[in-house]
Structure formats: structure tokens, C-alpha cells
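Notebook p. 47: complex prediction with 8-OXO-2'-deoxyguanosine-5'-triphosphate.
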Amino acid sequence: MHVAVAVIRGEDGRILIAKRPDDKHMGGLWEFPGGKVEPDEDFKTALNRELQEELDISVSQFEPLITIQHRYPEKTVLLDTWKVSGVQGTPKGNEGQEVQWVEPEQLTTLSFPPANGPIVNAVLLPRQYMVTGLFSSAAELIEKVSRQLENGLRLIQFRAPWLQEKPYLHLARELHHLCQPFNAKLLLKGNPELLQESWCDGIHLRSDQLSVPASEWKKYRREGQWLAASCHNEEQLLEAEAAEVDFVTLSPVRPTKSHPGRLSMGQERATELTRGSKLPVYWLGGLGRSDEQLAVESGAQGVAAIGAFWSIR
Ligand SMILES: Nc1nc2c([nH]c(=O)n2[C@H]2C[C@H](O)[C@@H](COP(=O)(O)OP(=O)(O)OP(=O)(O)O)O2)c(=O)[nH]1
Ligand SMILES: [Mg+2]
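Predicted complex, C-alpha cells below:
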């Protein structure tokens, strides 16, 4: 069942949600408004028809967010989810349903159908994910990260595999201080126990860590901490879903300077793998800010990069 789903953003940045009528599938849970796309119906027409029927509004701006295929015991749904804005009209629950504008951060505290977890994550995640590159002193690292925070980066993975754990964590703590005033999140590389550190915003797993059972990460994980993973093929994307990570990077999409000689999958294969995954996927490898639109239109959350963010002033 092809479902058109709308993450409706008001001018103040809040998001419109509705409560599903009790007598419907997933009744009593909050939803992002939308409904079934009729055969031969164009997606945008379907979405505006549903929003008119359910809420008495129409929308004029559309941007793809995420596509999730989810198997419920009763049926399989394809939630084709778009961020929409340019709302016309005042929303009201035409079917007697409760409707509410909420801050994005509130979404994690509400009960949605089981398929919706990745939608909520996709709403909260930015389009750009920076992975730190080479640095020869703490001062250089701090200077480069500061500059990118000022440039608007809000999600950063601190990668320095050449460092021992102790100096790595020491620098990580400093970077975390830098990130805080910007409300930016710093993801670390490491083992599950690291999640116990009060200042740890989350962990980015290597693909070989995906075999660690989800229960190991759950033991330590607190509300608000991100769990991400590096994936390079379909099998790892499935492992990441099973490990219950929040989002992934998919690489290498194009040839890169940091991994010379590694075969890249290309844009077409990356699109196919991205559409097949439930999770928000950042494209990584030889891409920069100028590829963001292409990635998003291909179903990705956005672009992750070392080079493009690290080397440019
Ligand atoms: N609209 C919407 N549907 C969702 C969400 N999450 C989720 O699992 N679903 C499921 C529930 C339903 O099985 C299906 C969407 O159906 P729907 O009930 O909205 O369809 P509709 O508006 O055409 O309703 P109907 O009157 O024809 O029953 O997708 C969500 O966030 N929004
Ligand atoms: Mg509906």
C-alpha cells in the first residue's frame, strides 16, 4: 500500500501531527497526516487531496524526506514521506481527530506507529554530516571544527583512528564543549561503554561493529544519544536495521582521496540501496555541499563528507 505522508512544517518551524481515529489501523496513535495514493494518482495530488479531506489545508512546497517500507502483521505499507510547507488554511480535524503543532524535539516523546521511528529521526537530523579529517595539532582540530560550526554544521563525527583511546577522549571532550553552544551533536568512535559518558552525544559504529547485538548498545544508551553506522553494501544496511541504529552513512558513492583504489558504487547503485533501506542514509565518498540536492532527491538524508568540509575555508 503506497501511502503519501506529510511532515508539515509551519512558518515557526513547528510540525503538525494528528491522532489517528480509534477505529482505524494504528488507531489512537499520533501520525504525520496523509493517506493512500489512489491508482493512477500523482503523488502530490494524492497528498493534497488527503490533507484537504483530513485537515482542510493545502500545501505548496515539497521536499522528499524518507521512504520506509514496513511490514505490519496485517499489511505492508510504503510510507512515502515528504517535508512540506507553504500551508494554506487553518488545520482542523475533519474526522474529529485531535491535531497539534509540536516542536521537532517533542516528537521523540509521543507515541507513533512502529514504522515511524526513522521518520522522526529524519526530521531531527540535518542534511550535512561532517567527519573530521587529518590534523596535526589540537589547535588545528579545534580551529577547523569551530569554523565548520560557524558555517552551520550541526552533526559531527570525530574520527582519529591513529590516536590511542586516552588522547582521543581528551580531545573529544574539548570538541564537545565547542559543540554545545551551537546545539551541535558530536559522535564518537568506540565501544558501547562510551555511551555511559554523560557528555557523549552518540556513537558512530564501524561496519564490523554491526555484529554486536543490539542489546549491548541498549544497555548503556540514554534518551537523545545517537547510534549511527558505516555501511558499504546491502547486507550491512540490513544489519544496521537489525542493530537498531538511527542512521547510516553509505560509502563510497564516488572515488575518494581518503580511500584511493577502493571501488565506488556510483550514484545509481547508491540510489537503489538508499531506497531499499528504512533508515536515514547519508551519502559519503567524493561528495560535497553541491551534491546535497542530488542526494536528497535520490532519497538520502543528505551528504556526509571529510574532504569537502574539512579542507575548505
Ligand atoms: N498517514 C499515516 N499513515 C501511517 C503513518 N504511520 C503508519 O504506519 N501509517 C500506516 C497506517 C495505515 O495502515 C496506513 C495509512 O493509511 P491511512 O489510514 O492514513 O489511509 P487513508 O487516509 O487513505 O485512510 P482510509 O480512510 O482510506 O482508511 O499507513 C503515519 O505517520 N501517517
Ligand atoms: Mg490518513
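Notes: The two ends are 47 Å apart (CA to CA). The mean pLDDT is 95.
Next step: compare against the earlier run before touching the bench.
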